[in-house]
C-alpha cells in the first residue's frame, strides 16, 4: 500500500481531540450520500414518466405518418404497398383526419374525427387494446346493416363523460364544411351510434378524439376513394427520423413523412429540459457536501501541521503531501457515492410500495389516478444515469480536495516546527 494512502486512511480515524473533525467528516459523507440518492431517485422517476408518456403517445399514434402535400391521397392502396417494401417498415394503414363537432342533446364538443381501416389499424396502433367498453369490430359497416342501421363511433373516456354518452347512445356528427344550398352553406350532419369507449391514459387524446370506419369517413366528408394519409409501424421507434428522410426521398416531392417525435416535439423537449434542469439543481446538494469535504481537509491540515513538517523533514515531497489529503477527501466522496447509489437504487426500484406505505400511514393520496391518469408510479432506472451521477459526485469530491491539499503541500517545515 502506498504510504500516502496509508496516512490518508489513518487521518480519517478519529482521536479523542479530533472528535469534531470526525463529526464534520460524517456529515460530509452523509451529504454526498443524500445528494447521490436524490439524483438517482428523481431521475428514475422522470425517466419513468417520460417512458410512460412515450408509450401512450405511440399507443395512440403511428410511428410515422405519410401525407400528400396540399391534397387528399389518391391511389392510397398502391402507395401503401410501395411503403411496405421500404426497409424498416412493418405495417401500414390508411386514415382520414378532420375536425367536426359532436352533439348529444344539449352537449356539444369539438373533436378530431379519424376514419380508420379496422383490419389494418390493429397492425399499426394500439387503439383496440385501449378499449374499455365495446368492440372495435362494430365500426365495420358490415356489422350495421338494415333500414334502421346507424354507423358505429368510438369515443374517448373523457369525451364520453363530457357528452354524457354510454354504449349504444346516438350522437350527431356535424361538419362545418357542409353542402351549398340556395340558403347558403349548410353544415353536414349524420347520426352515429357509440360502439366503443377507449382510454389511452392521456386527457388530450381521451377528450378530443373519435373514430369511425374509413368508408363512413369517406362518405361523410365526400372524399370518394381518397384518404388523408398513411400511418406506418416501423422496426425501430428511435430511428424514425432517418426512415422519414428515406421515405421523402423515395416517394418524391408530392409526399411528406413525419415521425412521432416531430409531431410531439414540444412535450418531448419539455421533458428532456426538465430532466437536465433537475440534474443540475440536485447536483447542488453534492456541491454543498463538497464544501464540507473541503472544510474537513482544512481543519485536518491545521491540526496536522507538525506531522506534515516531520514528513517533509524525512524527505516527503510536496506532491506526496498533496496526495495524502486528496486521497483522504476522495475516500470520503467515494464512500458517500457508494452509499448513495445503493440507497438510491433501493428506493427507486421499490418506489411504488414505498409511496403506497406512506399514503397508508398518512392517509393522504399523493398520487391520484383521476388527476394524473396513471395506474402506477413510474420509476425507471437507467444504467447510464447511475454511472453519470457516480462520476459527477466523485469528480466534485476530487475538485473539493485540491485547494486544501495544495495548501498543505506548500507548508514549510521550519514554520510548522518553530513553536514546537
Descriptive report:
α1 crosses α13 (318-349), α2 (19-60) packs across α13 and α13 runs antiparallel to α16 (383-409). The two termini are 31 Å apart. The protein has 420 residues and is α+β, with helices and mostly antiparallel strands. The protein has two domains: 3-56 and 267-416, no CATH class; 62-262, no CATH class. The protein contains 17 helices and twelve strands.
Give the N-to-C terminal Cα separation: 31 Å
Q: Using DSSP, what is the number of strands?
A: 12
Strand order in the sheet with the most strands: 3-4-9-6-8-7
Helix-strand makeup class: alpha+beta
Share of β-strand residues: 15-25%
Integer count of domains: 2
Number of helices, counting only DSSP H or I runs of 4 residues or more = 17
The general outline is: elongated
Please give the radius of gyration in angstroms.
33 Å
Main sheet record: 6 strands, mixed, barrel
Mean pLDDT: 82
Helix content: 55-70%
Q: Return residue spans where pLDDT drops below 50 for at least 5 consecutive residues.
A: none
Task: Please trace the helix and strand order, writing H or E for each element.
Answer: HHEEHEEHHEEHEEHEHEEHEHHHHHHHH
Amino acid at each position: 500500500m502506498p504510504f500516502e494512502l496509508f496516512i490518508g486512511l489513518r487521518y480519517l480515524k478519529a482521536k479523542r481531540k479530533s472528535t469534531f473533525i470526525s463529526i464534520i467528516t460524517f456529515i460530509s459523507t452523509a451529504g454526498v450520500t443524500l445528494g447521490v440518492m436524490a439524483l438517482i431517485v428523481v431521475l428514475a422517476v422522470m425517466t419513468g414518466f417520460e417512458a410512460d408518456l412515450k408509450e401512450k403517445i405511440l399507443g395512440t399514434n403511428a410511428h410515422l405518418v405519410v401525407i400528400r402535400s396540399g391534397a387528399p391521397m389518391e391511389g392510397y392502396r398502391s402507395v401503401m404497398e410501395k411503403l411496405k417494401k421500404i426497409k424498416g417498415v412493418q405495417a401500414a394503414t390508411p386514415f382520414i383526419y378532420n375536425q367536426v363537432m359532436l352533439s348529444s342533446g344539449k352537449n356539444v364538443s369539438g373533436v378530431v374525427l379519424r376514419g380508420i381501416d379496422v383490419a389494418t389499424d390493429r397492425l399499426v396502433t394500439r387503439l383496440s387494446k385501449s378499449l374499455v367498453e365495446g368492440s372495435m369490430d362494430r365500426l365495420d359497416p358490415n356489422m350495421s346493416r338494415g333500414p334502421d342501421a346507424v354507423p358505429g363511433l368510438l369515443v374517448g373516456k373523457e369525451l364520453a363523460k363530457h357528452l354524457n354518452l354510454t354504449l349504444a347512445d346516438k350522437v350527431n356528427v356535424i361538419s362545418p364544411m357542409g353542402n351549398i344550398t340556395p340558403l347558403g352553406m349548410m353544415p353536414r350532419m349524420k347520426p352515429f351510434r357509440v360502439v366503443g369507449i377507449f382510454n389511452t391514459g392521456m386527457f388530450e387524446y381521451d377528450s378530443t378524439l373519435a373514430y369511425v370506419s374509413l368508408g363512413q369517413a369517406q362518405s361523410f366528408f365526400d372524399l370518394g376513394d381518397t384518404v388523408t394519409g398513411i400511418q406506418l409501424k416501423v422496426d425501430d421507434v428511435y430511428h424514425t427520423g432517418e426512415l422519414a428522410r428515406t421515405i421523402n426521398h423515395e416517394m418524391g416531392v408530392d409526399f411528406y413523412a413525419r415521425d412521432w417525435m416531430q409531431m410531439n416535439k414540444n412535450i418531448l423537449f419539455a421533458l428532456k429540459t426538465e430532466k437536465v434542469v433537475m440534474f443540475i439543481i440536485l447536483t447542488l446538494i453534492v456541491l454543498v457536501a463538497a464544501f464540507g469535504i473541503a472544510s474537513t481537509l482544512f481543519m485536518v491540515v491545521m491540526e496536522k501541521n507538525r506531522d506534515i513538517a516531520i514528513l517533509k523533514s524525512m524527505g516527503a515531497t510536496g506532491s506526496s503531501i498533496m496526495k495524502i489529503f486528496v486521497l483522504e477527501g476522495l475516500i470520503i466522496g467515494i464512500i458517500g457515492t457508494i452509499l448513495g447509489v445503493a440507497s438510491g437504487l433501493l428506493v427507486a426500484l421499490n418506489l411504488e410500495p414505498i409511496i403506497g406505505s406512506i399514503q397508508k400511514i398518512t392517509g393522504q393520496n399523493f398520487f391520484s389516478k383521476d388527476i394524473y391518469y396513471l395506474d402506477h408510479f413510474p420509476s425507471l432506472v437507467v444504467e447510464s444515469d447511475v454511472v453519470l451521477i457516480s462520476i459527477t459526485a466523485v469528480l466534485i469530491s476530487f475538485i473539493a480536495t485540491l485547494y486544501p491539499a495544495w495548501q498543505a503541500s506548500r507548508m514549510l517545515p521550519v514554520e510548522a516546527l518553530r513553536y514546537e
